[in-house]
Structure formats: structure tokens, C-alpha cells
Design goal:
The protein has helices at residues 82-90, 129-140, 146-159, 175-188, 205-222, 233-239, 268-271, 275-291, and strands spanning 13-16, 27-28, 40-51, 54-66, 71-75, 97-102, 105-106, 114-117, 193-197, 225-229, 242-246, 254-259. With 300 residues, it is of the alpha/beta class. An 8-stranded mixed β-sheet has the order 2-1-12-11-5-10-9-8, with helices on both faces. Strands 4-3-6-7 form a 4-stranded antiparallel β-sheet. The structure holds adenosine-5'-triphosphate.
Length: 300
């Protein structure tokens, strides 16, 4: 799918996957986007946490199919369970009930085929950018020679435009550059799936825009399957093929899934006046700020 110009239907479609009412001006299709078996599959997943106050139901009845090469954004209010769902896809946690699988195999733990990018970059401060990335490359391509590992490391840094800063330590580079090293580290492992937990959340607006554009280019090139958690409506519409909207917790569910029928490559300046872009934005805002208007929830 990536690398081709996609045809642009007239309106975005919202698939309703729970009892949440649908948006009036977008067409509703009950089975859209979930009819094809997915590369990533979340089947009847429930996630409950044990807390001092008792069991806390974070997620309930989550069903989601993600196609190979698809870019999916997870959006919802704070505390609804986006990171919990991403962690299940990463294999950092196991579901209380249900299954999560990738390419037909049940996910039982973290692995290099699914690389994670965190909001706080999580680089090792005593290593240079090059060595931070190299460590990840070595952990995956163990059989390769040192020079081959170096080449892969260099290529990953070049992909995010950071070859010039390879020798610097994380404390010597900006927040945006640290995030780019985190992305390079994830990409260097040639993962099948890139999982991103608010990767640009801590950055200023201009740096965020630049990294979003870079990510668009990288994903076009690598044809990665991407699942990204975000709070940002514009980021979701700019980047994603589909946007999964989660209801407020506890026991959060997928409220609706919005198809983003905007062709690629995408250009943020042209999209500013694009009617499909505006309609997708409106559908998300309606879900988040009208039908899921935030109320403080008890937490675990
Ligand atoms: N290990 C845990 N033990 C107990 N409760 C937890 C645990 N992890 C998450 N929770 C609770 O589960 C709910 C979902 O948390 P999660 O971090 O997935 O939400 P989120 O949508 O990613 O939030 P945010 O957007 O603020 O990052 C929250 O109420 C949180 O307090």
C-alpha cells in the first residue's frame, strides 16, 4: 500500500465498533477495515491491573486488526488505556484475557520484530548517539561482522538526518535530535512493526512538525507497519491511515475507527485547506470533545 498514490474517496468513513453513536456527516460502515484478517491482531482483549484498592479494569473487549504496512493512530483522553494497548502489542505485558498476535504468532514477550519508541527517548546517557544505535543493531544482527553492524548503524542515523551528530552524547543534543536517535535505534533493527508512544509529545510545535514530516518520509520508504499513540488530532490525521478512538476508562473500549482517505505523499501545507482533512479532524473532535468529553476517572 505504501509507496503508491492512494485513490481518494470523497468522505472519510467511521466504523462503529461499540455502542457509541456515530457522527452524522460521515458515512458509517459496520464492517469496514476489520473484514480482512490483520497482520497485527487483538482479539477479545481485556486488561485488568491488581492495585491496593482491588482489581482495576483498564481495557475491555478490545478487537482490532491492523494490516501490514498500515499506519494506525490510537487516540483518546488521558488514562483511557492507549499505552496499555501499545504495551500489549509490544509484548511488554500480557493480556488478562484474549490474545494479541503478529503475523499469525501469539505475542508472548518483547522482540526485535516489534520496536518501540518512547516519549522520553530512553537513550543511555554515557553512550554516543552512534553507540546507542549500534547496541540495538548488534542485539539483532548478532551474526554480522563489526563493519556490517557499523554500516547499519550509520545508515539508520543518516535516515533520520543525524550522521553529523553520531559522536555526540545525548546530553549534547536537542530534544528533537534525541527523539530522532530513538527512531533511528528502532528502525535500525529493521522491525516489522514500529510502536510509538507519543514520540513527539515533549517537543515544541516546530520540531514536532519537522519530525512528523521526516517520519512520513521514512515510513513511505520502509513500508513499516506503525501503531502510534497520540493526543494530537492534527498529528493523527496527518500521519495515519486509520485512527482508533478509545472511550474513556475504566474498562475502555474502541469507540470508533476513522478511515483517513487522504492520498500519500501527504503535505501538511496543502492539507491545511483540504476538505477531507477538515472532515476527519471534525469527526475526531466530535468524538473526543462532545461524546467522550473528559471526566476524571479513578485510576489504578
Ligand atoms: N501497572 C498498572 N497498575 C495499575 N494501574 C495501571 C497500570 N498501568 C496502567 N494503569 C491504569 O490503567 C489506565 C490506563 O493507563 P494508560 O497508561 O494505558 O493510559 P493512557 O491512555 O496511555 O494515558 P496517557 O494518555 O495519560 O498516557 C489508567 O487508569 C492507569 O492508571
Amino acid at each position: 500500500m505504501k509507496g503508491q498514490t492512494m485513490l481518494r474517496p470523497t468522505f472519510p468513513t467511521v466504523s462503529t465498533v461499540s455502542t457509541v453513536s456515530t457522527v452524522s456527516t460521515v458515512s458509517t460502515v459496520s464492517t469496514a477495515s476489520t473484514a480482512t484478517p490483520g497482520f497485527l491482531r487483538v482479539c477479545n482483549v481485556r486488561q485488568t491491573f491488581s492495585t491496593p484498592k482491588g482489581e482495576f479494569p483498564a481495557l475491555s473487549e478490545i478487537n482490532l486488526e491492523i494490516r501490514r504496512g498500515e499506519f494506525v493512530a490510537l487516540i483518546g483522553h488521558s488514562g483511557c488505556g492507549k499505552s496499555t494497548l501499545l504495551n500489549l502489542l509490544a509484548g511488554l505485558a500480557s493480556p488478562t484475557a484474549g490474545t494479541v498476535s503478529c503475523d499469525g504468532e501469539v505475542i508472548r514477550g518483547p522482540g526485535p520484530r516489534r520496536a518501540m519508541v518512547f516519549q522520553n527517548h530512553s537513550l543511555l546517557p554515557w553512550l554516543s548517539c552512534f553507540d546507542n544505535v549500534r547496541m540495538a543493531v548488534r542485539s539483532v544482527f548478532r551474526a554480522e561482522s563489526a563493519s556490517s553492524v557499523d554500516r547499519r548503524t550509520q545508515a539508520a542515523l543518516e535516515m533520520v538526518g543525524l550522521a553529523h551528530a553520531a559522536h555526540k552524547k545525548p546530553s549534547e543534543i536537542s530534544g528533537g535530535m534525541k527523539q530522532r536517535v530513538g527512531i533511528a535505534r528502532a528502525l535500525s533493527m529493521e522491525p516489522q512493526v514500529l510502536l510509538m508512544d507519543e514520540p513527539f509529545g515533549a517537543l515544541d510545535a516546530l520540531t514536532r512538525a519537522k519530525l512528523q514530516d521526516e517520519l512520513l518520509g521514512i515510513v513511505e520508504k520502509t513500508e513499516s507497519t506503525v501503531v502510534m499513540v497520540t493526543h494530537d488530532v492534527d498529528e493523527a490525521v496527518l500521519l495515519a491511515d486509520r485512527i482508533v478512538m478509545m472511550t474513556n476508562g475504566p474498562a475502555a473500549r474502541i469507540g470508533e475507527i476513522l478511515d483517513v482517505p487522504i492520498g500519500r505523499p501527504r503535505d501538511r501545507v496543502s492539507l491545511a485547506t483540504d476538505s477531507t482533512y477538515a472532515e476527519c479532524r471534525r469527526a475526531l473532535m466530535d468524538f473526543l470533545y462532545r461524546r467522550q468529553a473528559h471526566v476524571e476517572q479513578p485510576t489504578g
